[in-house]
Amino acid sequence: MDDQINHIIETYKTLSSVPAPISATILLETEDSPLCIHSTWSTHDLIKAEQTKFSRDFIVERTSEKCNLLFCGIPQDITTDSLSAFAESSKRQAVLRKSSNDRVFLEIWNSSRKEKTFDLSERKEHGKIYDNMFGCLSWSADEKYLLYIAEKKQKKSVSYFKDCFCQDIGGSDKDDKDTVKGEEYLYREDWGEDLTGLHDSVICVLELETGKIEVIELSGKHENLWVTQ
């Protein structure tokens, strides 16, 4: 009986270690040069008890009859990468990465180094960045802008009896425009389950040169539509 259980355990370990493909991108495609295929895979780590993601590159030579594999790169762990996208030129890559303390960084890489890092967890233009089924990360054609989806920034809700006025350095009172009274217990519908806390989405455009973020909200008859639907 013990031998049978051990056999089942070892079989499960073997099957769990088999990676499953998630996505693939063809880079630098030309008629007379080999194909560079950047692929993303997922596998289950039984020791860590978590899903692990890794990337792997393949160099493939095309002929009139078949494709020949010239090179297969070593897998690189990308578990902490939430989203990634290659520019149209395939020479730059944007990576949205979470740190251990839940800070969110957007990194811009070229073929030789990391160009820039943006700390998006410190930005006030929007809320949580979507890195789930509603997430998106896309380059502009001129590679000057990046588009992503985030939660709309909501006004802070406080009690009717709370003083919403703050004292500035000059000593005068000013109304806090980002605060609304009486809605601290207002129910706001979300998507539930793994998407709890997602209420209203907005389109965000990051200018890479200046770091400025433009938030695009749907208005008019499209106001109640979900951006990524």
From TrEMBL:
<dbReference type="InterPro" id="IPR045550">
    <property type="entry name" value="AARE_N"/>
</dbReference>
<feature type="domain" description="Acylamino-acid-releasing enzyme N-terminal">
    <location>
        <begin position="24"/>
        <end position="218"/>
    </location>
</feature>
<dbReference type="GO" id="GO:0004252">
    <property type="term" value="F:serine-type endopeptidase activity"/>
</dbReference>
<comment type="similarity">
    <text>Belongs to the peptidase S9C family.</text>
</comment>
<dbReference type="Pfam" id="PF19283">
    <property type="entry name" value="APEH_N"/>
</dbReference>
<protein>
    <submittedName>
        <fullName>Acylamino-acid-releasing enzyme</fullName>
    </submittedName>
</protein>
<keyword id="KW-0378">Hydrolase</keyword>
